[in-house]
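Quick one: structure for this chain?
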Amino acid sequence: MQQETVQISKQIPVIADVDVLVAGGGIAGCTAAIAAARGGARTMLVDRFGLLGGNMGPGMMSGGVVHQALGYPYAMNGGLKGIPGEFLVRCEGYAGGQMGHQHLRDSAVGSYIWLRMMEEAKVRLLLNTYAADPLLEGDRVTGLTVENKSGSQAIRARVVVDATADADVAMRAGAPVGEGESYVHPGMTFTMAGVDLEEFLAWLHGEHEISDDDRAWAEDIFTRYFGSPVRRLDPLIPLYRKAWEMGEYWIIKNIEDIAGVSMDHGIPHSPNEYFGPQDGLVSTQIGLRGKGIRSGDQALMTRLEIGSRLYIFETAQFLRRYVPGFERSYLLVVSPYFGTRGGRGIVAQYATTVEDMREGRRFDDVVFVHYGSDGATKMEQGTDFPYRQLLPQKVEGLICAGISSILQPPSLRPRWKCLLMGQAAGVAAALAARDGVTPGAIDVKELQRTLVHRYDAPLGDRERLRELGLVD
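Got it. Here's what it folds into:
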């Protein structure tokens, strides 16, 4: 059946003409905007929220934090440098250490630091604004239309960076995209307040015997509903089972025929994992799994969001009724959106493969070396992340950064990698705007020299830098 369409024609005001326009204020977009501005580009960033940081801002640290996912050697020699390292160090001054130990506090810290860095770099912001259709001249993106309280507006730009986490701009521009069917795993963070943490932790670390029958029940439930092993359920399995059999709560629940939702991060097991013992706060998150999830289908995602928010409230009621220390607790806050852990991304000019990761392949257009694992294979030798992965096919004038630029596997979504993608994208965008060329036509050696000598980006050891012609 052919879908009914309408044709709309209207004139809208051009409110800005910039060198670089960044769509999306998550960590990749923020890093890209600052790198572009520091490169001399007149830079503007638009974001749908009123504060910056994405999963490390309004998303309430959904899915973990940077230091927890750092690969070798960053986890061993002081972490990241450049703009990513600057951001993290400045955050730690307010967080009292590594980010992520207290979701509410640290998400506010991240948003504050990004705002300060934007002001210092003179990045223009347009918040509470949705990036809509791109402006196109042939197959070249020359700006964006945006939607906000002022109505429809247009922004012209020499280069646009798509950091929307769903390749929204690339898709609307006609670039090939994939739905990320192999890995779409949204999450949503929430915080309980009024918890008697002394009582809860005493119970949590007490003696708990979980019968083989209880474990078999949990394994069966998760296999049938979630298609994955049981994670982080101890020592609550008997409580989950009792509530299930009483018809009061379901530890895992289907949302129509689309996905299963569960407490896949469990309840934190130490006072320093996600909350402070003096606060009476406990933060954790739910996760969804299902082959029917399509992050670019808004009607479907709305159904998942409704089901997830209902499930979170029901989880709060379960905790009050069944878990010691939660008797007077209440649901304090829920993230305003799903944390992105996969989904739609561009079909890049070159996409890193699992084989690349396993073999530690090198590329002449490397913009950083990354580390990780895929399945049982450890990849400590590192793999080059190519600049071409940030470039969509069939569309010019556009660079993608962060989740918008990847289709998993392999796992390229850890936050430290998204920060480095953003830094590379911002430097490249500034070079393209300066030289009046498309991002695909920049001098990649100049991009690499800037990344190495200005931002200490990890492109390899000195021998590798010599091979690339970046040092004598």
